[in-house]
Design goal:
Blueprint lengths: L1 H30 L1 E7 H5 L2 H13 L2 E7 L1 H9 L5 E4 L2 H9 L3 E16 L13 H11 L3 E3 L5 H10 L12 E3 L4 H11 L2 E5 H7 L6 E5 L5 E9 L9 H11 L2 H9 L2 H4 L5 E2 L3
Parallel strand pairs: 1-2, 1-3, 5-6, 5-7
Antiparallel strand pairs: 3-9, 4-7, 4-8, 4-9, 4-10
């Protein structure tokens, strides 16, 4: 009887250890997943699919990318569904940090917005001094313009360029508020022979499938800065702080910087993103 009791106790202890070990393994597995909420441009341009496998192989982490317009990307983090964000709207980023959801805003790379449109350029924007002048010509001519209309970083940049002269999509039939991501808007612009504001990287990576040309490029009012922000574990629950810090450190480190600096050069003859020099 004593022998049977001893065997039973031993089995119970083994099962308890196994259960504890299983729980520990589960926790470890969860800690190896990093949730990144980001804007569509770094995904649609191919940059993240190019970078992240290198990081994952080197560290053992798995990065889950959620891609949306900047407004939606930030909201995912506010809702507790991200460990870090990579977005491009300075005012929104500062609000995110000031409200306590983000630890620190780290600008680390940039590219440029460009205005694309049909090769015959019906509004005659090619010789414009800046984006605001080009937009004014598009408005005056009533040429079709496709707007993101989705609270993304690109949409916010577009509204900033329009300023007080922003069209009303309900009244101005030439102005189409698409409510779509960058790739979908470029496809729509191509189909309609319309103008569109886009980040240069996404346009170049999709150019082969589009009947559009860059008509105005790289003006000072079209600089597009990207920032990384770690989500604040003191404000949000279940944040993988170690994973977020590891990814931010890698993306701003020498290996990722070298990869970013050459991304696009072989295929497009120029880099699609530029590093911010300290």
């Amino acid at each position: 009887m004593k022998k049977l009791l001893a065997i039973s106790l031993a089995l119970i202890m083994v099962l308890c250890f196994a259960a504890c070990g299983g729980e520990e393994s589960k926790t470890d597995a969860e800690n190896l997943v990093i949730r990144m909420s980001t804007t569509t441009s770094v995904n649609d341009s191919g940059l993240l699919p190019y970078l992240l496998p290198v990081f994952e192989e080197a560290t053992g982490y798995k990065v889950e990318v959620q891609s949306a317009g900047t407004g939606a990307a930030i909201q995912k983090a506010v809702d507790g569904n991200a460990d870090l964000i990579l977005v491009h709207s300075k005012a929104s980023e500062e609000t995110f940090v000031n409200d306590g959801y983000g630890v620190e805003r780290i600008p680390f790379m940039y590219n440029y917005f460009v205005i694309v449109g049909p090769a015959d350029d019906p509004a005659g924007i090619k010789d414009s001094a800046n984006a605001a002048e080009a937009f004014a010509k598009i408005k005056a001519s009533g040429s079709t313009f496709i707007s993101r209309g989705d609270d993304s970083g690109t949409h916010k940049a577009e509204l900033k360029i329009w300023g007080e002269n922003a069209p009303d999509a309900e009244k101005d039939k030439w102005y189409i508020n698409a409510g779509q991501g960058m790739g979908a808007c470029l496809t729509m612009a191509s189909e309609k022979g319309a103008y569109c504001l886009t980040d240069k990287a996404t346009f170049l990576s999709n150019k082969a499938d589009l009947d559009l040309e860059i008509l105005l490029a790289e003006g000072e009012d079209m600089k597009n800065t990207y920032s990384l922000i770690e989500c604040n574990p003191e404000k949000l629950d279940s944040i993988n702080t170690e994973g977020a810090k590891a990814l931010i450190e890698w993306l701003t480190g020498d290996e990722a910087s070298a990869l970013i600096a050459k991304y696009g050069k072989e295929q497009y003859g120029e880099a699609l993103f530029y590093l911010i020099e300290e």
